[in-house]
Amino acid sequence: MKKRRYLVLEDGSYYPGYAFGSEKDAIGEIVFNTGMTGYQETLSDPSYTGQIITFTYPLIGNYGINEDDFEGLHPGLKGMVIHELADHPSNFRCTKTLDEALKSFDVPGIYGVDTRSITKKIRNAGVMRGTMVNNADNLEEIVAGLKAYVLPTDEIQMNSVKEAQRYAGEGPRVVLMDFGFKSNILAELIKRGCEVIVVPWNTSAESVLAYQPDGIMLSNGPGDPTSIPEAIATIKTLMNEENLPIFGICLGHQLVALASGAKTYKMKFGHRGANHPVQDVVTGKVSLTSQNHGYAVDESSLAQTDLVVTHRALNDGTNEGVRHKTKPIFSVQYHPEAAPGPHDANYLFDEFVGKMIASKGGNKHA
What we know:
Protein name: Carbamoyl phosphate synthase small chain
Structural class: alpha/beta
Number of strands: 19
Family: Belongs to the CarA family.
Region (CPSase): 1-172
Helix content: 10-25%
Domain Carbamoyl-phosphate synthase small subunit N-terminal: 3-133
Strand content: 25-35%
Distance between the termini: 60 Å
Largest sheet: 10 strands, mixed
CATH superfamily of the largest domain: Class I glutamine amidotransferase (GATase) domain
CATH topology of the largest domain: Rossmann fold
C-alpha cells in the first residue's frame, strides 16, 4: 500500500506524493539534476552531501542498483525527489532496487510529484531549503522551521578520508587531496598506471611534498570552497613549487582560483547533470560534460591573477576552466571522469600524466 509523503519548500509551496526509501523525515538544500541516466552515480556522489536531489528525467530506477557504480560508499544526500519510481528494474547487473538502496542508506525519497514544476521553481527563485515529511498538517510550522534551518558548513570534513591511503602503480606518483573525491577519479589515475596517495583535505603542504609527488590532484567535493581557508593556503604554497603539475576538478578548480587570488560565488541554481556543453576558448571545440556544482569562479576576478581562461559553459557563459600562465597547473569545473556522463573530456587525465612525465620524469618511483 502506498504511503503518503510531502515535499515542502521554504517559500511555502508543498507537493504531495508517495514515500519510498527510508521512513525518516529529511531537510536540506533542494537542487535539480538534468541527467537522463546515472542516478546511481548521482546519489552516491559526495558532492551532493546535505542536498535533496530532484531528477528532471521522469523515470528513475529502471535499471536498478549494482555494487560497482557507486562513486562514494557513504552517500551524503538528504533525499531524492522523482516523478515515477521503477520498482521492477531490468538489467543483468542489478542487485537491488532503488527503493532497497535508499533504505540501506537511510535516505528518504518521494515519488509521484511534478518534478518539472519543482525544477522551474528552482530556476526562477534559486536553490532553497526543502523538507520531506510524512505529515504536512502543520504547514506553517514546517515552513518556519525551514526558514530557520542553518545549512551545514562541514560537508568537506564529513567526506574526506581521515588518514592517507596508498594505491600502487608503476607510473607517476600522484597525491590526491581528498575534499570528497569520486571513486572514478581514482580509477582514471590508476588506469593510467599512476601510484596514488589519497590524503585528507587538511594535509599540510609540507606533508604533501614529503611524499615526493610527481603531481597533485585536487578533487571535487561539496559545499562552499571558501569554507576551508587552510586548504586554500596549502594549495597556494604547493602552486609556488617549481614545475609541480597540479590538476583540479570541480571544487578543486575553485580552490586553484582562490589560491591564485580570484573569487568564487554561489550560483542561483548551479549546474547538475550529464549534458552540459562547454567550449574550449582557444580551439572553439565543444564538449558535452558531466557537472555538479553550486559555486563558480568569478571570471572577472581572474584578471589580476596568473591564471588564464580555457573553458566556458555555453548555457550561461560561466567559467569552466583555467590554466597557469607559466606553470603546469590547470583545472576544470566539470567532471572529466564522466561518472555519470559523456567521455568527451577524459583526455584531460592523459594531459595531466603527460605534464608529470615531462616535468619530473614520471617513472622515477617505479
